[in-house]
Amino acid sequence: MRVTVVGAGKMGLPLACQFAAQGASVVACDLRQSVVNAIQRGECPIDEPGLLQLLEHVVATHRLSATTNTVAAVAESDVVVVIVPALLTPTNDADLSALVSVSEQIARSMRRGTLVSFETTVTIGSTRRVLLPSLESGGLKAGVDFDLAYSPERVKSQFVLKHLTQTPKIVGGITTAAAERAAEFYGRYLGAPVSNVGTIEAAEMVKVAGMVYRDVNIALANEMARYAEVIGVDFGRVIECANTDGEANILTPGIGVGGHCTPVYPYFMIRDAERLGSPVTLAEQSRMINDGQASHALNRVERLWGKLAGKRVMILGLAFRPRVKEHILSPAFLLSAELQRRGAVAVLHDPLYSDEEIRQHGFVPSTLEERPIPPVVILNTAHPEYEKLDLEWLAGLGVQVLFDGRDLWDPSRARRAGLVYIGVGRSDETMRGTSSSSIQIARPVMGGAEAQAAAEVIRSGWIAQGPQVAAFESEFASLVGAPHACAVSNCTTALHLALLAAGVQPGDEVITVSHSYIATANAIRYCGATPVFVDIEPDTFNLDPAQIEAALSERTRAILCVHQMGMPCDLEAVLGVARRRSLPVVEDAACAIGSEILWQGQWEKIGRPHGDIACFSFHPRKVMSTGDGGMITTANAEWDRNFRLLRQHGMSVPDTVRHGSPQVIFESYPILGFNYRMTDIQAAVGREQLKRLPEIIAVRRTLAQRYRTLLAGIPGIELPKEPAFARSNWQSFCVRLPDHCDQRTVMQAALDQGIATRRGVMCSHREPVYSGAPLRCALPHSEAANDRCIILPLFPQMTAAEQERVAAGIRQACLVN
Question: pTM surpassing 0.85?
Fold first, then answer.
């Protein structure tokens, strides 16, 4: 039996040697002349246990030779086995160019009756769809003039010879006869058990499915490890126990997944499934989770130790497996890129690689003896040399943080050495304690449901404003009890359109508060009008209705009131003034999603609307988010139609109507409009957020009440008040500092303890852009709120311990200050 093996690499050369050892006459083909020369001399060009002895034997007995001339070798062969690399393009599509080139060479000299078997892992269906036409380019037809089979390699570096003879060999063919012939060949010349799965596609899927399973399993382990880190459980011990029931087989979490197979082959299924409209979303999410482990690791380092910008960080290990000099798609590359993005300086050490080799792969080489040694060390590869490291010696050299990416070291040993130990699947207990972790001001509540919703929209092919936006509008209107809801790009654009609908024109004036984010006043200026600022009530931080009359003039066109920080303003009083003067009222409800007002004896949601128009924000700082976005609610159907026209350049026909029509439709543009649209991706996320909203608000209200208890004993501090007519969603919890406290000093003291705060709501009239705005009255309460108040962290994921820490930090800052 004369056999040609095309590709004499890490998998192909052992395969060729095994065929020869079983009695075949084998030619190994490779483009690299150095590899061919080494094989001809009986020298092994790769590091694989047992291969050198086998190679020396089959070369000495003249059963194996090597050449760079694939065409000539194929011309003399009965069987051609192809095992050349297929990797990924920059967009994570399968790169089959090398296989196509080899197939074209085979076609030039292949004889009738030849069996061609591909072993390279490919996208399912590619052998038939992509490679077969190249094989038939020489005039011979598969299934008639030659047999075509597929048999995936299923071996692992350092165990190749063992796996070749013990792991069942999978075969499938373009015909039943081809599959049977391949099964007979492998059974005779490989010596392994053979499983004939029938079709080429089934054989292709066996390898890909196995790799997807492995990647998903590791991703699941990584996700559970992240959870264990938060709740303080040793996940390694959990795995040991869970795997004893005979049903679980949880793999080991780590800093990432590397190698030729696991990070690559899942994409072969992911991309093809997308092409066929049958997405394998779990596989895709698993790839993102596993590739995200490097970033997650650095997040934990920064949370527990501090920012890495400007710091030197040492990566231990370039290889993706211990004791093996292989680095393809090693997590070390992801770590390096992420460190660079964060402004850190990365160096790398690996005992298997020379300094020059490390440089060739884009790293700065380092030694464990370099001075000064980087303060942060991250383990990527569990080489035995690293396990033996003297951790006290490392600490003595100046190492402060040890990130154990492979569960190599005993945490107690590291901590006894005085190191901050961070391990995958281990709680973030360090010598610094939990006080070093930062508490941010806000955190969106998002998870898998939002990611899945966004992914489904992306796969649908319709990502701009479309059916998801329409559904989101309907669901939002139902939530707040509004007849109409129109989604837009953000709350600022919502305010702009609302004021235009209310008739605000150049030269007009609009009554509003200075005490609000500058977007409130800006929206008035966008209309060519002038904001006339009135003061706020000191207790609620909202517009004081008693101030409106004095600010009115013959040019006043509307009133723009704000439900500041989620606290409903006194709408009944505001509307009383507005109705007497026939002025429309626009509610800036950017922060007030889910807040309620007592209206005619019943609790109703802000946005019904109670004024003429209400505008909402979905910015990440708000109670619910779509990344960014806004919504306009109104009871006026004509205004709603106008909003929809204006948000889309004034286009007469929506995209959904044009694309869904069986007839050609030409749109027109009767008015000057804007590009204020929301995307379907955002809307899909918003729909999931609406489902979470009741729980989010309930938790925020509980947290606000707890803050009242925790902060009540601080002398001189004033807590926010909730009027009898209002139920806040507590988008923010704003406190007024004692008179003796300096705002900036207290905020800095909190920040030094890892507690983020924000100053009181800004005053627009203090900004240079509004220096010429008319001030018809003083704004003492607005300015005092800006100068004397701070906003505390508040988000649904906040723990009791975090709230206690915030309260203690503010108490200490106020007493010291």
Answer: no
